Amino acid sequence: MDGVGSGPGVAPGPPSVSAPEVGQIPPFQEVSFILMLDHLSSMSDGPASGAALGPVATSNPCFYPIQARTPIVDTFQDLVEKDLMRINKANKAASDLTRQEQEALQSLQNNASSVSKKFSMSTQFKVYAYFSLNPAGFLQAMAMKFTVEEINNSTTLLPGQILGYKVYDTCLNSLAILHPTLLFLARNGTEDVEVMCNLTDYKTEVIAVIGPSSIEEATVPTKLFSAFLIPQISYAVTADEFSDKTTYPSFLRTVPSDIKQVSGMVALMAYFQWNWIAAVASDDDYGTQALQQFSSSAIDSGICLAYEGIIPLNISDSAISTVIESILDGIVQAEVNVVLVFSSLPQSIALFQEVIGRNMTQVWIGSASWVLSESVLSLTGIERVGTVIGFFPEAQIVPGFDGFLRNAISQLYPPHSATQSMWASEGYQNIDLNPDAISAILHPLTALLAQSVYTAVYAVAYALDTLLNCNSVMCNKQESKIYPWKLLEVVKNVTFSIFNTSFNFDRNGNPNVGYYIVTHSFTGMGFINIGSYNGELDLNISLINWGTKDNQMPRNGVRGNC
């Protein structure tokens, strides 16, 4: 790591940092994680019990809006029902459940029925991950570690203080995520979650949470974190429902919401006068909610959806292939030249595999979930599908992170090295780094996923710096307690510089971040930045390769009843 300009700072410049050393990382087997900022300790006085924050000016210092929150018992029951529905939807009978799934469900049901005034964590959730390593998730976990270590080595941000953290693998599973969620909510120093009418003086095990990455994972934990007003900053959840501060008062994010992406897509189509189009979405919250938002906005802008297709989840490869063939038939019959694809990554990959097999050429408008995915760009024949234009959250390569990541990988690979054996003895034996995974982790496109994590951790750090009344030399040591609800008020209003760009959240917890508009290019990094959208459309259409004679833009006027 070069360490030069690697941390964001307040004017006039970034904090000075020394290069973080790579150390231990937890086992990681899927795309998402939850980071828990669990304590703040003084470098001179030794570890503190939790993090220390000063009082917040308020007309009622005992006010804590816990009333009318979702009861924990109901939340547990909702979670069990949701996962049982998921299993049934996949046509999987209870007798077909794996032992681990049966234990996880039974453990959850037992705990859900035993909650009263106190929830004991003595019954452990037995959820195990046996998935292949996800390159993007591994990189994001390492980005979190890098950022915390960078902050801890800073001489100007939180001077004399140390952030602690833990990382938990969610396995993209709403059952697996519940166990760390309850640990986070436990009273500091215990494994008990106390349900009280007034939580003003209730000090949780954590002061902030970073993550997770999907709507399905986020819904239940976010309601619980909101009940305790623990600041939660997601680096990937984009669903607009989380902008509702009545339901999710403590949720924030470092990526723009889907409603901004949908607005940008509508503006793009209006600019090109594409008013006869098809739309394809995945059958999950991400796809269906965005499709509903687009349909409503498109009608208001005179754009006609000639065809809509939904790609299901949790079905066999042969079944999904049959569904996609039907969707592509519908697109052809609708005689559209432009197709919007607002779909999760696995469904997008399946879609374009069929498109390539059919030699279809269209203008494809892509969402951030897949448009710059290395998995899509590496599909054999993807260059023949036509023109791909998509939206991706504004992001930069985090300085110094590549060297940090390579150093970490060198300590984990080859798998039978002495270093790996040492890590295995510490409980890290489930990290399965193979050459293909390493190549994907180090891909320049994957590196763009680090900044949203980086920014989320820095948002918490700058808020703590403010609460602790830190100057360039030291923080206020007279403050003895940090309560998450106090930190939340500061996080919501924090403003800081990230790579010479000011960052802040709006009143709904959404960032002042827009989207790059990109097009696929099979040279360099695999894409060209052709514009941006952050409330206003900015385009350089001369950079687009339409793949037509004289590079003329395809026309797509209304051809039937809308």
Describe this structure in words.
With 562 residues, this protein is an alpha/beta fold. It has two domains: 33-255 and 397-504, 3-Layer(aba) Sandwich (Rossmann fold), CATH 3.40.50; 258-367 and 521-551, Rossmann fold (3-Layer(aba) Sandwich). Helix content is 35%, strand content 16%. The protein contains 16 helices and 17 strands. An eight-stranded mixed β-sheet has the order 9-8-10-11-12-15-16-17, sandwiched between helices. Strands 3-1-5-6-7 form a five-stranded mixed β-sheet. A hairpin with a 6-residue loop joins β15 (515-520) and β16 (527-533). α3 (135-152) packs parallel to α15, α6 (258-272) packs across α7 (285-300) and α15 packs across α16 (484-493). The radius of gyration is 24 Å and the shape is globular. The termini are far apart. Mean pLDDT is 77; it is low at 1-33, 38-77, 89-95, 107-131 and 418-429.
Strand order in the largest sheet: 9-8-10-11-12-15-16-17
In whole angstroms, the N-to-C terminal distance is: 56 Å
Number of domains: 2
Q: Into which percentage range does the β-strand content fall?
A: 15-25%
- Work out the number of β strands: 17
**Name of the CATH class of the largest domain:** Alpha Beta
In CATH terms, the superfamily of the largest domain is Response regulator
Rounded mean pLDDT score: 77
The name CATH uses for the topology of the largest domain is: Rossmann fold
Structural class: alpha/beta
Sheet of most strands = 8 strands, mixed
Count of helices? 16
Helix content: 25-40%
